[in-house]
Automatic annotation (TrEMBL):
GO molecular function list: nucleic acid binding
Domain Integrase catalytic: 1-74
SUPFAM superfamilies named among the record's database cross-references: Ribonuclease H-like
GO BP annotations listed: DNA integration
PROSITE patterns from the UniProt entry: INTEGRASE
Residue ranges crossing the lipid bilayer per the database entry: none
Species annotation: Acinetobacter baumannii
Name under which the protein is recorded: IS3 family transposase
InterPro entries xrefs: Integrase_cat-core, RNaseH-like_sf, RNaseH_sf, Transposase_IS3/IS150/IS904
Amino acid sequence: YQRELAENGLTQSMSRKGNCLDNASMESFFGILKSECFYGEKFNSVEELEKTVKEYIHYYNHERIKVKLKGLSP
């Protein structure tokens, strides 16, 4: 697994033992992604899923209203 990561230019990331807060931001994002993008959806191919995720990430980063920005989009 680690060799495959290295061969593909990826870096493995793991949180510290016993510290769930290390990954809180990503856990939050994936929870929102699942609830807003995946639930109730069926994808006909991996390509369709990849396209949907890329479009959602763009929406999330550029258009989605953010509470921490007092109701504004980024």
